[in-house]
Amino acid sequence: MAWICLFAAGILEVVWAFSMKKSAGFTLLTPTAITIITMLASFGLLSVAMKSLPLGTAYTIWTGIGAVGAFVVGITVLGEAITPARIIAALLIISGIVTMKLASAD
């Protein structure tokens, strides 16, 4: 159950990062509200996952999901640049997430 909560928290991190970008510095009401709600939900699910997962594992995987997810959303939705260096960086983050999961005893 902790892993499901952690994955959901990571996905919500992507949502709040995207909605924060769309909030124009918290000047638009709807994206600002989405940011705050999904941020609180993401932190809440992360805290539930941390009840049984090690801090380093949970936090690293949570931020990794958020970073790679935001990278993908930036490219696919916002039209951000896709370069070999950015792809390599994302692949390194993914390899770190997989390694952290494999190294976890839980």
UniProtKB/TrEMBL annotation:
<keyword id="KW-0813">Transport</keyword>
<feature type="transmembrane region" description="Helical">
    <location>
        <begin position="85"/>
        <end position="103"/>
    </location>
</feature>
<dbReference type="GO" id="GO:1990961">
    <property type="term" value="P:xenobiotic detoxification by transmembrane export across the plasma membrane"/>
</dbReference>
<comment type="similarity">
    <text>Belongs to the drug/metabolite transporter (DMT) superfamily. Small multidrug resistance (SMR) (TC 2.A.7.1) family. Gdx/SugE subfamily.</text>
</comment>
<keyword id="KW-1003">Cell membrane</keyword>
<keyword id="KW-1133">Transmembrane helix</keyword>
<dbReference type="InterPro" id="IPR000390">
    <property type="entry name" value="Small_drug/metabolite_transptr"/>
</dbReference>
<feature type="transmembrane region" description="Helical">
    <location>
        <begin position="58"/>
        <end position="79"/>
    </location>
</feature>
<protein>
    <recommendedName>
        <fullName>Guanidinium exporter</fullName>
    </recommendedName>
</protein>
<keyword id="KW-0812">Transmembrane</keyword>
<dbReference type="InterPro" id="IPR037185">
    <property type="entry name" value="EmrE-like"/>
</dbReference>
<dbReference type="GO" id="GO:0005886">
    <property type="term" value="C:plasma membrane"/>
</dbReference>
<keyword id="KW-0472">Membrane</keyword>
<dbReference type="Pfam" id="PF00893">
    <property type="entry name" value="Multi_Drug_Res"/>
</dbReference>
<feature type="transmembrane region" description="Helical">
    <location>
        <begin position="27"/>
        <end position="46"/>
    </location>
</feature>
<dbReference type="InterPro" id="IPR045324">
    <property type="entry name" value="Small_multidrug_res"/>
</dbReference>
<dbReference type="GO" id="GO:0022857">
    <property type="term" value="F:transmembrane transporter activity"/>
</dbReference>
